[in-house]
Design goal:
The structure holds 3 protein chains of 3 kinds. By secondary structure, chain B is an alpha/beta fold. Chain B has 11 helices and 11 strands. In chain B, the strands form 2 sheets. In chain B, strands 5-6-7-3-8-9-11-10 form an 8-stranded mixed beta sheet, with helices on both faces. A 3-stranded antiparallel beta sheet of chain B has the order 2-1-4, covered by helices on one side. The radius of gyration of chain B is 21 Å and the shape is globular. An 8-stranded mixed beta sheet of chain C has the order 6-7-8-3-9-10-12-11, sandwiched between helices. By secondary structure, chain C is an alpha/beta fold. Chain C is globular. Classes of the chains: A mainly alpha, B alpha/beta, C alpha/beta. Chains in contact: A-B, B-C.
Chain lengths: ~270, ~325, ~325
């Protein structure tokens, strides 16, 4: 199943990369042919209230989706790894302090925090991506920290220290590469959830109006549901498929990790 | 015993771990801290070029001492001297340089190598850390030489740990320990988790390296038979203190400490014709947290007298080169 | 006592499937045990000793099949039993003490309850009170205070848990006990007490026992018979004193001399060079041939026959009797 997810993700990436080539229309272009239903010649998925081709907009929407997913989840992973590995390795007051901070942070519902943030700072897409990244790293930090706590007692880590390795080397070469798998799995899931968050913000009208995003399409389509149900349906399906795909990939990474961890050779 | 040519001297070494009070105990005002006295006042010296064995059961403190001497843990009391230098006062580059002298071999061959690194990278890492060898090529050759020294074929260099057997992995660990040509190696139960037919090979390798490179070893083991084979002298530990230390045949044939006698009498012998006389002792090893006063073995000792339960005996010489911590052992 | 042995294993063959091939884990293994006798199965990892012992009560690995041979436990052919008959036989006539058995106790139930439940499960006719009495009696026999029946496993030390597992195996008074590596993970003094207790109970109940161990010193002290296994086959078998006094298979010789001992003279240890054979595609001829210092041409071609050295000692070697133990020189090998 993870392979299916991966295939979908790859297909989506290709769509994003090749959007100018495969989409038939400029997604921003208004036209007179508004509210055309799906199946109309030239518009496989119909057009919206401004006459823009739905199919092209869905294809172009993959760009925003991937951008948001990769940048937000990537940032979250990066910060999470550092904020988990360093306190976890050193322990002591720093570790206690940061752990408590993370505990508190995790109590706050991220989505409302983001609504607040976009309300205050505006809804530029770049800002939204950064904001998602800056609010979702605590889970990764926790995951990384718990891995570090286990790994720092491993004989190969101790052997490296005994040989004179510095802390950065130990972390970079031994601890993080061996402990990062759960973070990778979580990042795949976070990509999906980042896309959903952005879609949710757009749906509430807080998204960036200058980009083509599926959430935004759903928001617009929701107002015209009776006359153009296809305007909301297709971006909605696209969201569903891509996020599900990321979840499958995340599960797959998780599953792939476990048999590896269990495997022990006979002497 | 020859003139004192000690590479490492340990005086009054202590390692105490605080035991967390339970919430209930704290609430009810039991504020006196409790400690797990893993190592509780240990004195010994390791002569240059010798293999000193630390023998004992689990909880005796031998692994903790090994970690301290490998500079992976700090003592909470006492002093360690390595060729006149106190390694625990070193910092930064001085400490890093010092680490070239001491290496460690661990017990579990399946956890001793980073699963994501190839064998050659694991062995070359100490060289990278200290910038030995003018460039990558030279280091690669030195690392391969270390592998060959450890009895492994060159082809294994590019493999990953999961492709190797337990015995091979342990040899890689030995190669890694030897690549810096250390003067001292802590071997913590290096063969306990290896299959029996592989043990003799690894032990023979360690002895060969000792002879060729004049390496001094601390050989930690619960297996007295292996200790007898590997070591020159053996120190027997119980609950954080040394009970007896002497050269191996003296410890094996003429132990004076009751605990050593009990331990030896419990070791099975691979000879169906040998009639082993057991020295029976009640109960199990108590916890090293709340120890009663006096000798720690008194509660189970078949020969304990009143004095044993009152004062803790010092480690004293009962013959040249033979020390025992027992009130009943006649001093020299 | 009738003439038939308690356990008679003849030509047992057990293979299991892994990846694309069949691992010939137990390949034509034969041995027999009388009541109150102990057989030691020794060999390195992967030699088949555990597989063979477990196959006796048809505890097979995943994808494992018994392909041939007979296992006669008090005259009953275990290989031919139906599943429900097999279930009745297990624990009542033959019981196992698994390796690391102390971890087999369920941490959320009291130790005494676990034993009582196991007893009542196999014997529905036994009342709770009768079960309790039996468990009290067993606790005393293995050296545990009966008051401790109400403890949970984490309140028991390693040695105590091992004793509890021994008690559990004795619940239904089996005729045969299989002890898989009974001395790992315990300190040497406790190990000694446990082994002593096991022997005492065996004598008391006149049980047959199989001890699987890689530690030949434990086997030397506790067993009457020894079977040295290599590559899925028994290479030497017989009365323990006879095999130790006159080891006749090169592998046995190598194995015995690779063991350090606290007694006896201090000698150099032997290391047998090479690796154990691939049991999916074993070499033709003798399985030990690639590592054997005294091999001859025939050894690589034909599997060696079992040769009787005397009434109670047999060896599977083409050249048996043609060399003495001191003439087998392993130093010429690699490493």
């Amino acid at each position: 199943m993870a392979v299916v997810g991966l295939a979908i993700v790859v297909a989506g990436l290709l769509a994003a990369a090749l959007a100018p080539v495969i989409a038939g229309y400029d997604p921003y272009q208004f036209s007179d042919e508004n509210y055309q239903p799906p199946g109309t010649p030239g518009h496989a998925l119909g057009t919206d209230n401004f006459g823009r081709d739905v199919l092209s907009r869905v294809i172009w929407g993959t760009r925003v989706a991937f951008l948001v997913g990769v940048v937000s989840a990537g940032l979250s992973a990066l910060i999470g790894i550092i904020m988990g590995a360093i306190p976890g390795y050193y322990g002591g007051y720093m570790d206690d302090l940061i752990s408590r901070f993370i505990d508190v942070f995790l109590m706050i519902p991220v989505f409302f925090l983001l609504i607040l943030a976009t309300a205050i700072f505006g809804s530029n897409i770049v800002f939204v991506m950064l904001a998602i990244g800056l609010t979702t790293w605590p889970t990764n930090a926790r995951i990384m920290r718990s891995q570090v706590l286990t790994l720092k007692q491993r004989p190969y880590v101790l052997a490296s220290i005994a040989a004179g390795a510095s802390v950065p080397r130990v972390l970079a070469r031994h601890i993080i590469p061996n402990g990062v798998y759960p973070v990778i799995a979580n990042t795949a899931l976070q990509m999906g959830s980042a896309i959903m968050i952005e879609a949710g913000l757009s749906f509430l009208g807080l998204g960036d109006p200058n980009v083509v995003s599926w959430g935004q399409m759903v928001q617009i389509g929701q107002r015209h549901l009776s006359v153009g149900w296809w305007m909301a349906l297709f971006p909605g399906i696209a969201l569903l498929i891509l996020v599900a795909a990321f979840n499958l990939v995340g599960d797959g990474v998780n599953y792939a990790m476990n048999p590896r961890l269990q495997r022990r050779d006979r002497a | 015993m020859s003139a004192n040519d000690a590479l490492i001297t340990v005086r009054g070494l202590k390692k105490h771990f605080p035991v967390r009070k339970g919430v209930v105990a704290a609430l009810f005002g039991r504020t006196r801290d409790r400690f797990l006295r893993a190592v509780d006042g240990v004195d010994f010296a390791i002569q240059r070029g010798e293999v000193l064995g630390l023998a004992g059961e689990s909880g005796s403190g031998k692994t903790t001492i090994g970690m301290i001497l490998a500079l992976l843990d700090r003592p909470t009391g006492g002093a360690v001297s390595f060729d006149g230098v106190d390694p625990f006062h070193l910092k930064g580059k001085k400490l890093k340089d010092f680490r070239r002298n001491t290496q460690i071999i661990f017990q579990d061959p399946y956890q001793t190598l980073n699963p994501r690194l190839r064998v050659i990278d694991t062995v070359a890492e100490p060289l990278d850390i200290h910038g030995i060898g003018r460039h990558g090529r030279a280091r690669h050759e030195m690392a391969v030489a270390a592998l060959v020294l450890a009895g492994l074929p060159e082809q294994l260099a590019g493999r990953y740990p999961h492709e190797l057997s337990g015995g091979q992995r342990q040899r890689v660990a030995i190669a890694r320990a030897m690549v810096l040509r250390p003067r001292f190696i802590v071997a913590d139960e290096p063969v306990s988790m290896l299959d029996v037919s592989v043990r003799s090979g690894v032990m023979s390798l360690m002895l060969k390296l000792k002879r060729e490179f004049r390496v001094t070893y601390l050989f930690i083991s619960h297996d007295l038979a292996a200790s007898r084979y590997m070591c020159d002298r053996i120190a027997v530990m119980y609950l954080g203190r040394i009970m007896e230390v002497a050269d191996k045949e003296t410890i094996i044939q003429r132990p004076v400490h009751p605990y050593t006698q009990v331990l030896l009498s419990a070791v099975p012998v691979p000879d169906p014709f040998f009639d082993r006389k057991r020295v029976r002792v009640p109960g199990e090893t108590p916890s090293p947290i709340d120890l009663p006063p006096g000798c720690r073995f008194a509660a189970r000792c078949p020969r304990a007298v009143a004095e044993c339960r009152e004062t803790e005996p010092d480690l004293r010489a009962v013959a040249p080169g033979h020390l025992a911590a027992c009130h009943l052992a006649a001093p020299a | 006592m009738s003439g038939a042995p308690l356990l008679d294993v003849r030509g047992l063959r057990m293979h299991f499937r892994i990846g694309g091939g069949w691992v010939r884990a137990v390949d034509d293994v034969s041995f027999s045990i009388e009541r109150a006798q102990t057989l030691g199965l020794v060999g390195e990892s992967g030699c088949g000793k555990t597989s063979a012992a477990l196959a006796v009560i048809r505890l097979l690995p995943e994808n494992g099949h018994i392909l041939g041979g007979q296992v006669l436990l008090d005259g009953i052919d275990v290989t031919r039993l139906l599943p429900h008959e097999l279930r009745q036989l297990r624990w009542t006539r033959a019981a196992i003490i698994f390796q690391g058995a102390m971890n087999a106790l369920n941490p959320v139930f009291r130790v005494g309850d676990q034993l009582m439940d196991a007893l009542m499960l196999h014997r529905p006719d036994v009342t709770r009170r009768q079960a309790r009495e039996r468990v009290v009696s067993l606790f005393e026999q293995v050296g545990l205070q009966p008051a401790r029946m109400v403890n949970y496993p984490h309140e028991f030390s390693g040695g105590m848990k091992q004793r509890a597992m021994i008690a559990m195996s004795l619940l239904l008074n089996p005729d045969l006990i299989i002890a898989d590596e009974p001395t790992t993970a315990l300190d040497v003094v406790i190990q000694d007490q446990i082994v002593e207790k096991l022997k005492e109970l065996q004598l008391q109940h006149q049980q047959g026992m199989i001890v699987i161990s890689h530690d030949i010193s434990v086997v030397a002290e506790t067993c009457d018979l020894i079977a040295v296994m290599y590559g899925g086959k028994i290479v030497e078998y017989g009365d323990i004193k006879s095999v130790f006094a006159r080891p006749s298979h090169p592998y046995t010789i190598g194995l015995l001399r690779s063991f350090p001992s606290v007694r006896g003279e201090l000698r150099d240890l032997v290391t047998i060079p090479g690796e154990p054979p691939d049991l999916v595609n074993p070499p033709p001829g003798c399985r030990f041939e690639p590592r054997c210092p005294v091999r001859a041409a025939i050894c690589g071609r034909e599997e060696p026959p079992q040769r009787m050295l005397d009434a109670s000692h047999r060896v599977a070697c083409h050249l048996a009797g043609q060399f003495g133990p001191d003439e087998v020189d392993f130093q010429r090998g690699k490493w």
